[in-house]
Automatic annotation (TrEMBL):
It comes from the Bacteria. Pfam families: Beta-barrel_RND (PF25944), BSH_RND (PF25917), HH_MFP_RND (PF25876), RND-MFP_C (PF25967). This is Membrane fusion protein, multidrug efflux system. Residues 215-296 form the Multidrug resistance protein MdtA-like beta-barrel domain. The keyword Translocase does not apply. InterPro entries: MdtA-like_b-barrel, MdtA-like_BSH, MdtA-like_C, MdtA-like_HH, RND_pump_MFP. Keywords: Cell inner membrane, Cell membrane, Coiled coil, Membrane, Transport. Residues 109-136 form a coiled coil.
Length: 391
């Protein structure tokens, strides 16, 4: 019977070993899996470094100034019988703005005109008498004294007519003053006098202010350190100037630089410049504060990235560069300018490298990233705008 027990024990040992192996293998697999967890990634939005021609601008703040601003006043006293403009209306030089009652001045003109007609009639009679007296004098029937007296009377009447002509011209000028016209091309302001009122030459507010809008000028300032560069570029030709709204979102007009002031403002260390704009669309308004972009030159083959890729840290300006293995590297960069949402890079990047433009607050050197595209990128950008970036 013993020979039957031994094989049974061997079978039991084999079965036990199999069970042990079967139960041990899952634990070994779990331990192996725990030793190599999946690499976490951060979703980001990215863009490539682009290479193209980039205009170089100097930025300053300026005030729009009109070349001409005229307060239209009356030069005579009278009652306003007509207002011929609307407030804010464009007008041309010579356009009628208002009419003063012309009747008193027309009557004065008629009076001096009648006086001249009278003097001309008297002159005609005096000249005829002088002719007769001269003929009688040749025959001895008129004395020299009579002839001299008549000659003097003719000369006197000539002078009287000249005086009448002067009075007529003065009366015509006064009558012309009853028409208040625009002295320049421009835009009218707020009307200061209503129809039916008596207007005087001494009225401090006058009738209305007319301001020239086309063309218009812009006075802006730049640091004096920029002056050598400006002078160097001016030698090559005229420089263009762009006028933008104060938030740099709306282009108002494009003009040209016409003047660099002849002195430096010592208190501020700045130089004043003057630009002229055609202003055909009337988007520049006198007294308006605008941002002036002075175009110095165009850099060919310049490297640009979206402005959102540029970060500021304790050690200066940097960006997150995505390496071929989809990890990020903190790369110091040098920015030449930021304009139109694009940053011009002087150093630190090469063309076609990938940089992170959104989602930087999740990153540090070596972080693995997943690049989002399309709608996912838009949603990530919107969510990122609500996050507070980590310094």
């Amino acid at each position: 019977m013993k020979w039957k027990i031994i094989p049974t024990a061997v079978v039991l040992l084999a079965i036990g070993g199999t069970i042990a192996i079967t139960h041990r293998l899952p634990f070994q697999a779990s331990a192996h899996a725990a030793a190599a967890p999946p690499v976490p990634t951060a979703p980001v939005v990215a863009s490539q470094v682009a290479s193209h021609d980039v205009p170089i601008y100097l930025h300053g703040i300026g005030t729009v100034l009109a070349y001409n601003t005229v307060l239209v006043r009356s030069q005579i006293q009278g009652q306003l019988t007509q207002i011929a403009f609307k407030e804010g209306q464009p007008v041309h030089a010579g356009d009628l703005l208002a009419q003063i009652d012309p009747r008193p001045y027309q009557a004065q003109l008629d009076q001096v005109t009648a006086a001249r007609d009278r003097d001309e009639a008297q002159l005609k009679n005096a000249e005829a008498n002088l002719t007769r007296y001269t003929q009688l004098g040749h025959s001895g029937w008129a004395t020299p004294q009579l002839i001299d007296t008549q000659t003097a009377q003719v000369a006197q009447l000539h002078s009287a007519i000249k005086a009448d002509d002067a009075l007529i011209e003065a009366a015509k000028v006064q009558l012309g003053y009853t028409r208040l016209t625009s002295p320049i091309d421009g835009v009218t302001g707020v009307r200061q006098v209503d129809i039916g009122n008596i207007i005087h030459p001494g009225d401090p507010n006058g009738l209305v202010v007319v301001t020239q809008i086309e063309p218009i000028s812009l006075i802006f300032t730049l640091p004096e350190t920029d002056l050598p560069r400006i002078q160097q570029q001016m030698e090559k030709g005229p420089l263009s100037v762009l006028a933008y709204s104060q938030d740099d979102t709306i282009k108002l007009d494009e003009g040209k630089l016409i003047l660099v002031d002849n002195e430096i403002q010592q208190t501020t260390g700045t130089v004043r410049l003057k630009a002229e704009f055609g202003n055909k669309a009337h988007r520049l308004w006198p007294g308006e504060l605008v941002d002036a972009w002075l175009h110095l030159e165009t850099r060919h083959g310049g490297l640009t990235v979206p402005a959102s890729a540029v970060q500021q840290g304790q050690n200066g300006t940097y960006t997150y560069v995505i390496k071929p293995d989809d990890t990020v590297e903190v790369r110091p960069i040098k920015v030449a300018q930021i304009a139109g949402g694009q940053a011009l890079i002087d150093a630190g990047l090469v063309a076609n490298e990938r940089v992170v433009t959104d989602g930087q607050y999740k990153l540090q050197a070596g972080t693995h990233v997943t690049i989002l595209h399309g709608k996912a990128a838009e949603e990530a950008a919107a969510q990122s705008a609500q996050q507070t970036p980590i310094p």
